[in-house]
Amino acid sequence: MATTITMPQLGETVTEGTVAQWLKKVGDPVEKYEAFLEVSTDKVNAEVPSPVTGVIKEVLVKEGDTVPVGTAIAVIDEVGSASATAPESAANPPSTPAAMANSVQEDPVPGFNVPQLEPKPQGNGHARSENVIPSSYGAPGGLEPEADALAQDALRKASPAVRKLAREHHIDIRTLRGSGANGRVTADDVLTTARMGPAAAVGQAIAVGTNFGAAPPPSAAPSAPPASGTSTYASPIPGTLVPLTQARRIIAERMVESIHNAPHAWTMTSIDVTNVWKWRAREKDRFERETGYKLTLLPFFVRAVVESLAAFPLMNAKFTAEGIYVNKDVNIGIAIGLPATLVVPVIRGADKLSIKGLAIAAGELIDKARRGKLGADDLAGGTFTVNNNGANGSWASAPIINAGQAGIVTMETVEKKLLVRDDDSFAPRYAMNSCLSLDHRVVDGYVASGWLADLKKRLERMTSDGAL
To answer: Which of 99, 146, 348, 435 matches a 20 to 30 Å C-alpha distance to 378?
Structure first.
């Protein structure tokens, strides 16, 4: 029996999707719940699992094409139907070494037909196969049976696209612990390992419980050009072209759309955050022990933001052809920069959360973002955005508004300064700039500057009377 697969709806507001990559081709077998397609939307990238076990019969939409939700994109013949017969080469792989040598185009795992690259002449004139992994990268030769089974399982679960990426970076997938579903090795796992370098990668691969999904801090993992000479957004090489991923295309489109449709205006204020800074310093160690998340300035700032949005409802609104719609919910987007992309997950009902609740909610979203675990629901429904540029030492910035919102506000770097008190005395204080980009169709400068001034007062008056 043939099953028609349609473009899924990855989020309540998503109306279309783009076929980013087919992980299977016509004639390939596919297991139930096995990913066979990658789909991109303006919200999220996601792998699509097969609802049945069978063989890919037809591919109806080409890679790169965008189609409405519900459009037929593929047909799978279920196991047991007359036409659901895998190709003979896949069903009966060669069993002798000689036969294997004559079938180099076949992957060692049935059903994953990944072509080997032809040997390329090197600078000294010798040929070398691109898929050969140098032993210094931790190839697991001579593993114990249990470890070898785990290594082969990691290889089996990896998609063809991830395998190709691993070959380009000379990474043996069998040495990695995947951060994807059911331990699947993802592209982020491969890129993270590549940035760490050979020695660090080997050490991580043999360490028990290592997870390559969490992006290391920039200082711990400097970007290094990949050995293959392929330039990527995470590891750009001067003088080369970085190919656009679907995610980067969508980011570019949304940024251009926002800057052209919304007339941006900009304003800035300086905030004395000494009280909050010292409060956080006193509580951060205890907070991390109790919750497992670091206590940063972000939840304090977000709490002041939602209180100011309640005082200035127009800042929590959006422009429509019919008028200015004032949102009932207060859902705060948190802009997070990752090595290869930018995401803005949303803290829903932020006005109903305490500072502790906001810290935990933000920590969970940031952790999911770094592990590549954000879903469509995590990224949908934002009504206002906070951007923590200060984490990288920024003193002032002019961010682009997230489309469909009235503004985006930044947290800039905190600096210790001598400030003048009301009695004209000088005192060392912790100060931070905060910058606001606003949609001038929704609010005028009077409202926006009033909101920013209110935010400043709330942060400066915030004391440890509030519960953590």
So the answer is: 435
Q: What DSSP designation does 12 have?
A: T
**Better-predicted residue by pLDDT, 50 or 421:** 50
Q: Which of 202, 218, 237 is the last residue of a domain?
A: 237
Per mean pLDDT, which of 4-18, 185-199, 216-230 is the most reliable? 4-18
Alpha-carbon distance 211 to 116, whole Å? 28
pLDDT higher than 90, residue 414: yes
pLDDT tens digit sequence for 88-110: 434 444 433 333 333 323 333 22
* CATH code, domain carrying 35: 2.40.50.100
Q: Would you name the residues annotated as active-site residues? A: 440, 444
Q: Which domain holds residue 421?
A: 248-461
Q: In the chain, what is the straight-line distance between the N-terminal and C-terminal CA atoms, in Å? A: 58
Same domain? 228 vs 252: no
In a domain, 108, yes or no: no
Q: How far is the CA of 406 from the CAs of 78, 325, 403, 444, in angstroms?
A: 49, 10, 8, 11
Asked if the structure places residue 116 within a domain, the reply is no
Coil/strand/helix, residue 227: coil
In angstroms, the CA 176 to CA 193 distance is 8
| Distances 92 to 83, 96, 109, 238, 371 between C-alpha atoms, Å | 17, 12, 12, 46, 38
Does residue 255 share a domain with residue 232?
no
Between the alpha carbon of residue 242 and those of residues 225, 230, 248, 337, 338, the distances in Å are 12, 8, 11, 18, 16
Round to whole Å and give the CA distance between 226 and 235: 7
